[in-house]
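Provenance

Sequences were taken from public entries as deposited. Structures were produced by running a predictor on each sequence independently, with no templates supplied. The record for PepSY domain-containing protein from Streptomyces djakartensis is shown for reference.
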Amino acid sequence: MKRNIVIAAVTAAALVGGGTATALATTGDDEGSARQAANTRLSDDDGGRDDRDDTARAASTDVTAPEAIASALKHTPGTVVSAELDDEDDSDKVIWKVDVLSGDNGWHSVSVDPSTGKVLGSHTDDEDDTAQVRAALKGSSVTAEEAAKAAAGKGVVTSVDLDEDGRNKSWEAETRAPGGAEQDWKIALNTGKVTADRSDAQDDDSDAQD
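Predicted structure for PepSY domain-containing protein:
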C-alpha cells in the first residue's frame, strides 16, 4: 500500500502535562496553507507509541495470520503453537513471529514479512513446556491456522496462541476492530467455535475497580 503525504513544515512541537505531545504541522496547496494539529497520547509502558499506531500497522499488513502461519510451516515443518504480529527488536518495523514445534521436539521462531509473506529468518528456542503443549494438542482437530481463520471474522487477527494451562485448553486470539478496539477470543480445539474471552473482561473490570 502506497501513501503520499506532503508536509511543508513542522512549525511547532511542545510537550504538555499528562504525557501528551502536541505537534503542529503546516501543509501547502495552491490557495495557501492550512494548519493541522495532531495530538498523540504517549503511554508510559510502550515507549511512547500510541495504540492507534499499532492498529494502523496491523490493518495495513498484506499478509494475514493464517498466511503467515502457512509460510512459516513451508519453511519449518511442524506444529505452530503461536503467531504474533510484533515489533522487530523493539523497532517500528513489524513482522510476524511464528513459533513452531518440530517433530523432533525442537522449538523454532520463524520471522515472516507482513507485506510479502517471505520468511526473513528463523532461530531455535529453548522451551521447557514441550510435553505440556503436546498433551494439550493431543486429539485436537483445530490447528493454529484454522483458529486464526475462525477469529478473522471478528476483526484483524494480531495474534493467536495455544492456552495449554488450566482445565479448558483452547486457542486464544487477539483481534483489532476498525475503530482500534482490542478483543480477546477463545477458539475451541475440537470445534473451532469462537467465544469471547470472559476471563480477560473480568481482569479488566478488576483493574478498573483497583
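The chain is about 25% helix and 40% strand.
The chain has two domains: 9-42, 59-204.
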